[in-house]
Amino acid sequence: MLRADSTALSTRDAVENFLARLAAGDVDGVAALFAERVDWDVPGAVEVPWLGIRATRAEVADYFATHPTYVTKEEFVVERTLVDGAEAAVSGRFRSRVIRNGAVMESWFVLQLTVLGGEITRYRFYEDSLTVARAWATTTTGADGRAQEAHSGTTD
């Protein structure tokens, strides 16, 4: 349930500032919103270099600085932001292209954030990690940019 107290407002402000700075490509501004120690995870295949765990503001800054060297953002749409006290959830969809091979990654996402003392202390980004792994691993793309090579796992 959404609470109208100052904690919810500061959480919403932090989330809105984060999204605005992210859209503007302000890496230093984005990193400044995070606590010095952060509980960060973007789960997925270990082969994908931008996925995984980070623990410090410096590592967060590195993530946002290096991510654009791997992918080109084509679309990032926030559909909904929900805030409950120190917790926030942002949902939407994105479309990006892997720079090294041209493969397209298109997915929904849910971003979970915790904001304490005006700083982001917890970050979780959930996406279709199989689509991301396939796009990263592909060596062939079709005219639409979608991966044409089957992944190495089994299919039903």
UniProtKB/TrEMBL annotation:
Highest taxon in the source lineage: Bacteria
Pfam families given in the database record: SnoaL_2 (PF12680)
InterPro entries named in the record: NTF2-like_dom_sf (IPR032710), SnoaL-like (IPR037401)
SnoaL-like domain sequence ranges: 15-123
Protein's name according to its UniProt entry: SnoaL-like domain-containing protein
